[in-house]
Design brief:
The complex is a heterodimer of chains A (about 400) and B (about 425). Chain A is of the alpha/beta class and about 400 residues long. Chain A has 16 helices and 14 strands. The two termini of chain B are about 15 Å apart. Classes of the chains: A alpha/beta (about 400), B alpha/beta (about 425).
Chain lengths: ~400, ~425
């Protein structure tokens, strides 16, 4: 059996981060062979462990509730866990020693939190000048908003995103249900970390990365920002519309809460759609063959398409349109996503066994790579499961020393 | 001409990496914008007439630079441009010759188009063994929807994220302004860096295939786990709040005097602080309005109705100040005009001034991170269409003036 390629083998990461945006960075690194050590403390746990006891098929799951959270498993899969009481100088010393044999640190705690413990960049770079230290704060290390709590809706409200989500011409509805800021921040932070690691591997030079999660939203909200900043126009609430294409939206299919996304992006596609509708006895004005006419009459075009789409099931409509060369896809809920063939067979979700939760599927880094694909090699760690390995084997502590540290509440 | 690193130039992370890009619209351009911002040399191959992205705007409303397109300027900042007619064999050949000495090739052209140009993974793997190719698309190059029509809208639809946004009973909404395309781009950039590290370690080139639907599916799937397994049957859309308030009340957008605010209370203290800010109303003592989980799950609209009259007496700025003073999480829903005026962003340098034309500059977002020692290329201008064509053919491919002239005359070089 050939050895699985691990492009990040030899990269050891100390992970202080909590919840989603930070932990996802470490999990993706672990998918490529990095050794990611989550530094936890029994007295102050990652919120993602503290969501209470989950139920499955209406039965509460058995086992310690801090070990049973699927959200925690997903965002921390593939990692090791050690427990250290960072208020104790001996724990801080141990982290310094770990920093000496690590390549990167990831944290998304409030600004100054780790510094106050003697675990800031300057402290750890003094031990290991090659260290790459990624600090993912809500709004950066300096400035009036540094105290901001990095809740996703707070970040998306302050960057103008919430105000842009809604139905055309109506007051914003927002997207409180979806934490877009987190995965967006994680994706951009991972890029910054990898760029710095690339440089580190070639030069031995370390780096402090001052990463702002709200700035990561600005980076992708560039179009509405520039509409205001360059063109002097307040960007519109578009709904599902695109100012270049009609129809471009989500239309009702047969049945309850059944929807299909449809986008016609050139004249050939329009003719194909018009043909399909004509076959069902719904003829459309010839004037609509021109995009500017459709743009001027978008409400009516959408009504016409929506009246027709209702006659089909989601799947049939999407397939029919796809075959005719028109962009279309059913709107799926997450459980439906899990079963859809698009997401099978490409390694997007991979199995891992958890001692209490059992078998489950975790999202790997969502990248298909021909030579070095991502690999979910484990679920999330049990709290402190790797104290012996990390402190004993990696740092060389004797069992008696380790025992004493546990007794003294340093390893806790 | 890109600001190539001389011996005294400040170090950038990706100096020395060469990227060739050919694509359309957003995903490939954003991917390589990130690489260019870190000092990679990005050669953008545009079709005759230039990338249609150049016609999208937004265009400045007044000034000497009203012909300069905003989005394209940001996405192509710091790149070199060559216009090649890839439908002519000589054009294809020139692109392949450029690939011969490139590290990365990024494209979001359709699978059919890439196959026709021998730019698909199999063709590239055979011809350019050390090359790392990054294909970006809605559904990926493999699987039941490979090569099928559809873009950002359809990728979001399949992923599960669209299902969760909007009002119950009405059509679900996507995350607006093509967010799936940007996510494909940033993930593609990271995947490219992992592949570079792998190549350095002896893995050779490889084909990376980013499906925007997969990227969004991972995000939606992870997000849903916050709700599933905790008494919320499905992560359904719930209008202006998270479903079942995601736990304790409030987690909601509510109107105020001059717009809307989002309120997020996660603890009993948050709620008590909010009530204190409201002057401790009588109803706050009713046990019905102390059971935060019941409020959040079973009767949130009832509680909204108790808050809205008070909220409507205050502006967003007043509420933001009250929230800071009383310590409960609240954020105003800002307009883009307000975002641009936020003092914090000015202090941090979240926007940089990009040269446009006629001596003007215009603000564009910088990157979201700052390094302690590495430099970034944040305000490099974007190229005119084909601005570097002659230079690239002469210096990179060693073609002489006469040959270049012929290529131009025949329309192979634009």
């Amino acid at each position: 059996m050939s050895e699985r390629p691990r492009p990040l083998a030899g990269v050891r990461v100390l992970d202080f981060s909590w919840v989603w945006s930070g932990p996802m960075v470490g999990a993706m690194l672990a998918d490529f062979g990095a050794e990611v050590i989550k530094i936890e403390h029994g007295g102050r746990l990652d919120n993602a462990r503290l969501r209470g006891r989950p139920t499955h098929a209406e039965r509460p799951l058995e086992g310690p509730s801090i070990e049973l959270n699927p959200y925690f498993h997903q965002t921390n899969h593939g990692k090791l866990s050690i427990t250290l009481n960072l208020k104790d100088a001996r724990a801080v010393e141990l982290v310094h020693r770990l920093a000496g044999i690590s390549q990167a640190v990831v944290e998304n705690l409030s600004v100054g939190a780790l510094e106050r413990l003697g675990l800031g960049y300057r402290d750890l770079a003094a031990v290991n000048p090659a260290l790459v230290y990624l600090a993912m704060s809500a709004a950066g290390q300096h400035g009036p908003l540094t105290g901001m709590r990095a809740y996703a809706p707070v970040m998306s409200s302050l960057t103008g995103l919430e105000a842009l989500v809604g139905y055309p011409g109506e007051a914003p509805v927002g997207m409180m249900n979806v934490g877009y800021g987190d995965p967006n921040a994680g994706a951009h932070a991972l890029f910054a970390l990898l760029a710095a690691l690339w440089h580190q591997r070639r030069t031995g030079v370390g780096q402090f990365i001052d990463f702002s999660q709200v700035d990561a939203l600005l980076a992708v909200l560039v179009e509405p920002l520039l509409e205001q900043a360059w063109a002097g126009r307040a960007p519109a609430v578009r709904g599902n519309r695109d100012p270049r294409h009609v129809p471009h939206g989500v239309f009702p299919a047969r049945g309850e809460d059944a929807w299909v996304a449809i986008s016609v992006t050139d004249e050939g596609q329009w003719r194909a759609l018009r043909e399909l509708m004509a076959r069902d006895g719904r003829s459309l004005p010839e004037a609509w063959d021109r995009i500017d006419a459709r743009l001027a009459d978008v409400d009516r075009v959408e009504q016409a398409v929506g009246g027709w789409s209702r006659d089909y099931s989601r799947e049939d409509l999407a397939a029919l349109l796809q075959r005719a060369g028109v962009g279309a896809a059913p709107v799926l809920s997450v459980p439906e996503q899990w079963d859809h063939p698009q997401f099978q067979g490409q390694g997007l979700r991979q199995p891992a066994e958890h001692p209490h939760f059992g078998a489950s599927l975790h999202y790997a880094a969502p990248w298909r790579m021909s030579a070095t694909p991502p690999h979910v090699h484990a679920s999330a760690p049990l709290l402190g499961a790797d104290n012996d390995y990390v402190l004993g084997e990696l740092l060389g502590l004797e069992p008696a020393q380790l025992h004493q540290l546990v007794e003294d509440g340093v390893v806790a | 001409m890109s600001a190539a690193a001389g011996p005294d130039a400040p170090a950038t992370a990706l100096a020395g990496i060469t990227v060739v890009e050919t694509g359309q619209d957003i995903a490939a351009a954003y991917c390589t914008r990130l690489l260019a911002s870190q000092g990679a040399r990005v050669i953008k191959v545009e079709p005759p007439g230039g990338d249609p992205l150049r016609w999208r705007g937004p265009f400045p409303c007044a000034g000497p630079d009203t012909a300069v397109p905003g989005l394209q300027s940001y996405l192509d900042a710091g790149k070199e441009s060559i216009v090649l007619d890839l439908d002519q064999p000589e054009g294809q050949d020139l692109l392949h010759r450029l690939l011969g000495s490139a590290d990365l090739f990024v494209s979001n052209l359709s699978l059919a188009r890439r196959r026709a140009l021998e730019l698909d993974a199999d063709s590239l793997g055979a011809r350019h063994r050390a090359l790392i190719s990054v294909a970006l698309s809605a559904f990926g190059d493999r699987g039941p929807l490979a090569g099928c029509p559809g873009g950002d809208l359809e990728a979001q639809a399949l992923s599960g994220v669209c299902w969760a946004i909007g009002c119950p009973g009405r059509e679900p909404l996507v995350v607006p302004y093509q967010q799936a395309d940007y996510q494909a781009g940033v993930h593609g950039a990271s995947a490219a860096l992992v592949a570079l590290m792998a190549r350095e370690a002896g893995a050779g080139g490889q084909a990376i295939d980013i499906a925007a639907a997969d990227v969004l599916a991972a995000a939606a799937g992870t997000n849903s786990l916050i709700y599933l397994f905790y008494g919320v049957g499905r992560w359904d859309r719930a209008g202006n709040r998270a479903i079942a308030s995601g736990g304790p009340y409030p987690y909601v957008i509510l109107p105020c005097r001059d717009g809307a605010v989002c309120l997020i209370g996660r603890t009993r203290r948050d709620w008590q602080n909010l009530l204190a800010a409201m002057g401790d109303p009588q109803w706050g003592r009713d046990p019905r309005y102390q059971d935060l989980h019941a409020m959040g799950r079973d009767y949130p609209e009832e509680v909204d109705a108790l808050l809205v009259p008070w909220l409507k007496r205050h502006t967003r700025a007043e509420l933001h100040a009250l929230a800071a003073h009383h310590q409960f999480p609240l954020a105003p829903l800002k307009t883009m005009a307000e975002v641009l005026e936020t003092p914090h962003f000015a202090e941090r340098g979240s926007f940089v001034q990009m040269p446009t034309a006629g001596g003007r500059t215009r603000p564009v977002p910088a990157t979201p991170f700052r390094f302690s020692t590495l430099s970034q290329r944040l305000d490099a201008p974007s190229p005119g269409p084909g601005a570097h064509g002659t230079d690239i053919l002469a210096r990179d491919l060693g073609l002489d003036e006469a040959v270049i002239g012929t290529l131009r005359a025949s329309g192979v070089l634009g």
